[in-house]
Amino acid sequence: MTEQQPVPEETQKQPLWKIISMFALLFLGVELIVSALGLGINQLMRALGAGENIKVFLGSTISRGGMIAAALLLTIPMLTNVLNQPGNRILYPRKSGWGKDLLAGLGISAAAMTVVFLLELALG
């Protein structure tokens, strides 16, 4: 007869409500940061008297950049809390050849943007 070993606390399943509530809080946090950035940039552009094109360009750039930064920075603690594992190891695993992967991704992105740019240039 084999004895069943107790499951370590680290590998126990988390309740579904905890997982859903944590990611709802993550979404709420990212949206609050995006709203604050959007309002702050809008007030700054009005105070400086910037033109409409500058408002749109800087507002969307900073808002989207802030959204990406907030999502990345808030996701790691959420994953750590929900999965009971270090979130940075899940999102950014260390493996050999990461430099080649990075350069390949940059090359593919540059090629895709070049194709779109040339297509737009050819079409006027």
Total number of distinct structural domains: 2
Amino- and carboxy-terminal Cα gap: 78 Å
The coarse overall form would be flat
- Helix count, DSSP H or I runs of 4 or more residues: 4
Q: What is the alpha-carbon Rg in Å?
A: 22 Å
Helix content: over 70%
The quaternary organization reads as: single chain
The strand count comes to: 0
SSE class: mainly alpha
Q: What does this molecule look like?
A:
With 124 residues, the protein is mainly α. It folds into 2 domains: 13-93, no CATH class; 95-124. The chain is 77% helix and 0% strand. The protein has 4 helices and no strands. Helix 1 packs antiparallel against helix 2 (52-83). The longest helix is centred in the first third of the chain and has 33 residues, at 16-48. It is flat, with a radius of gyration of 22 Å. The relative contact order is 0.09.
Considering the chains and any ligands shown, give keywords for the structure.
single chain, 124 residues, mainly alpha, 4 helices, 77% helix
Itemize the secondary structure elements and their pairings.
Layout lengths: L15 H33 L3 H32 L3 H5 L6 H26 L1
Give the structure's gist in a few sentences.
With 124 residues, the chain is mainly α.
